[in-house]
Every structure is written in structure tokens, then in C-alpha cells.
Amino acid sequence: MTRRVLPAALALLVTVGACTSGSAPGFQPGADGAGDPYFPRYGNGGYDVAGYDLDLRYDPRSGQLGGRATITATATQDLSRLNFDLAHLTASRITVDGAAATSRADGNELVVTPAAGIPAGREFTVVVDYAGVPDQLENKALGNGGWIRTSDGGGIALGQPESASTWYPVNDHPSDKATLKLAMTVPDGLEVISNGVPGKRDSKDGWTTWRWAEDAPMASYLSTVVIGQYRITTGTHGGQPMIIAVPESMPATSAAARSLAMTGEITDYLASVFGPYPFDANGGVVVSDSRIGYALETQSRPVYGHTFFARDETNSGVVAHELAHQWFGDSVALRRWADIWLNEGFATYAEWLWTEHAGGETAQRQFERSYASFDWRQPAGDPGPERIFGAAVYERGALTVHALRRTIGDDAFFRLLKTWTSEHHDGNADTAAMIALAEKLSGKDLDAFFQSWLYGTTMPPVP
């Protein structure tokens, strides 16, 4: 994400399946949170989701969203009950493996009790029928995020650290990555853009169904849907679909359009540094709404607030930042939010590298300017829940990356980048894993280095 990201919430309907006959002794409810120290109730325990398959309909006149979510998962314990994150939406019918389940709402939690317990290791399917008027989630410290009803007759689902729960039932924590299929039906004349590869489009009785599929595992906050009046450019890059969408209200030659047209070129450069591009599709979406003053690395198709292009100048830096996240943050996702510097520090450093590659200031010069003016009292490695989008995470994170490069040398550093993205492809990782890999490739003890650069409260010496 670039600059500030918002949280979001929405309500949904789900069915769960694969049960045993009766709830045997020892079966326990799954936890109502994933155990993240920063956000204890984000996500849920007791199961691991493989994929979400959403068949939804949105009526912009009433603001109503409704349909069916089919969730495939595996129990990680003997499970008597499980929760999904769901905000503002109401489930009407839920099944687990085809059998009717009972449910209740508990704040932004949908609590599902299957007809029989689900044994550990068992795959099961939950189907949720749900509907309602989606809305944003409120977070006084981080800002609002989630579903936004827009003035062009559409809607946008977007936000970090949570947002998916505002439009489908979900295990809303990056530690549980899953695939996403979306069929979204809207009135004719509206466009729908989401993650992944576009599918067949159908029209009937004044309504059009748009289909998208992201087949790589994805952290839930990286899922998005953008509905409205958009000019969509479809092409290919490297044999993959390249889809770029800009509001029809913007000129075809606008700074936003020119900037996103550089997506392929920037991707190619980043692939030379980080390794092969990790997904089956690429592109970007520009949104024009005053409530979205940030950019977010939504998987395979970043979303950019229009304010990044307000001066009518090409802004390739923000594109480089969000594309870098496709490796650092998306393909290799967080285990817990305290390690967000792994996302933002490397993406900010990618901006520095791209600027140098494009003929601007060197990464070394950008490091020197930032190092001299930075307030070192705020840690990057454990910023606290209210500062996960603070300057320390972005800027001090990038300073740490460059200092690591100076400490271990270019050969080990650039091998580190490609090894990291290869070894943790489609997975999750943490700071401890980064330190271990850097030490392995460099042959150096780096504990003191990382302690100083990520967690210290005074200016560390330049390596």
C-alpha cells in the first residue's frame, strides 16, 4: 500500500460442510480471532480456507448486495463451531457439506454451528446465502475502509488491514490465504473490475454478469471489486492478461492513464530484480473518490487513488511501489501485522531502485537524504497497531533494506531478493525468516544489525 490504507467491513452468508455424525467429545469451537497481537479478532481459528467462490448481484439504486458465497476449507482441529468475519450483511441460509447449519451474528462475526462436528484434517464446504446494504468498517486510528457506494452508480470494496468482510464472509487475516472466484451481476452499462483473470461475460434482461478468477492464494485484504463507469484497456504482457481501468471521467491521455501504461515496463524491471512476476494477470485500476487517498496492492491489479495523478504529471513511482508489492506483500504475505515493514520497506526501496533505473537519483543518494532527516524514535519492526502505516514502516523500512545491502554486499543482497520471493512464493513469512535467510546467504551474524535498524530508538551507524 502507498501512504495510508483503510479498514473495511461487510456482511455475508455462508454454508459449511463435511461433518461427522454427532459432535463427539473433544470437539471445540474455533477461535473468534487468528491470534494476531495487533488485531486479536481479525480472522478466525479452527480451519484453513482453500477458496472463496462468490456469485453476487449489486443494485446501485438501492445499494443492495446479495448472493451466495461457497467456501471450501479444511478443519485444523476437531471443530464443533466456526466463525467467519462479516459486517453489515445478513445471512439467510447456511449449509455445511449440504446439511443445514445454524448461525447467529456476534458483532462483525458470523457464528456457524454445523449439524455435526468436523474432524481435524477434514475438507468441508460452507455455503452462505446473504444480503444487505454493505458499508465501511470504522477504525478511529487507521481510518475507514471496506465497501464504498460511489457517485457514478457503482461501488468499491477496498481497504487494509481489513476490508473483505464488508462484502463476503471470510477468514479476514493474511495468514489464511485463499483463491477467489467472483461472478458479479450489475445493471448494463456498468463495468466490474476485480482480481485475476477475466472470464466469460453474460447479459440478460438489462443485467450483465462479469467474472474474474484469482487462482493464486491471496490474503483477504488484497481482494477487491470496483464497479462503475470505467474505460477498460485489455491487452497482454508476457503472455498474460494486462487489464487497466481508468474512470471515464478522466481523459484518455490523463496522467493516470499514462502512468498505468508503464505497468508492463516497470514489471519487467522489477522481475529482473525480484524474480519472475508471481501471478497470472497484471494491470491496475484508478478510482476517483475523495474517500480513497491512497493506493493499495490488490493482488494482480493494484488500485490507485486519483490524487496520485492530480498534478497531471506521470507518476511512475507509485506504480513501482504497488507492483513491487506483488512480490513483497502479496505472493509473500505476512504472518502477523507487526512485520508489515517486510511489505512496505521493500516496496519503498523498489521505488528507489526504479528511480535510479529510470535516470533519477541513485538509491544511495535517496538513502542519504532520508537517513539524515529521519526521526529514529519510532521502530519499524514492531510499530504498534496504530502505526502500521506510519513513516517508520515505509521509510525506516527502506533505510534498513539499503543498509542491509551495504552490510552484506550486492551479490548476497540481490540473491537474497530472488531467493526470498522464490522460497516463500504463494506463502507467508516473517522477520525471523528474513534474518535467517540473510545470514545464510551472507555468512554473517546479523542479529545486532537488525536490532539496531528495525527496533532501536537512536540513529544507527551507516554500514
TrEMBL record:
Peptidase M1 membrane alanine aminopeptidase domain ranges (all copies): 275-453
Enzyme class: hydrolase
Gene Ontology biological-process annotations: proteolysis
Signal sequence residues: 1-20
Cross-referenced SUPFAM superfamilies: Leukotriene A4 hydrolase N-terminal domain (SSF63737), Metalloproteases ('zincins'), catalytic domain (SSF55486)
Gene3D superfamilies named in the record: Neutral Protease Domain 2, tricorn interacting facor f3 domain
Record-linked InterPro entries: Aminopeptidase_N-like_N, Aminopeptidase_N-like_N_sf, Peptidase_M1, Peptidase_M1_aminopeptidases, Peptidase_M1_dom, Peptidase_M4/M1_CTD_sf
EC number(s) reported in the record: 3.4.11.2
Entry-linked PROSITE patterns: PROKAR_LIPOPROTEIN (PS51257)
Catalytic activity: Release of an N-terminal amino acid, Xaa-|-Yaa- from a peptide, amide or arylamide. Xaa is preferably Ala, but may be most amino acids including Pro (slow action). When a terminal hydrophobic residue is followed by a prolyl residue, the two may be released as an intact Xaa-Pro dipeptide
Keywords assigned by UniProt, alphabetized: Aminopeptidase, Hydrolase, Metal-binding, Metalloprotease, Protease, Signal, Zinc
MF term (GO), any: metallopeptidase activity
Required cofactor names: Zn(2+)
Domain Aminopeptidase N-like N-terminal: 52-222
Family assignment from sequence similarity: Belongs to the peptidase M1 family.
Protein name in the entry: Aminopeptidase N
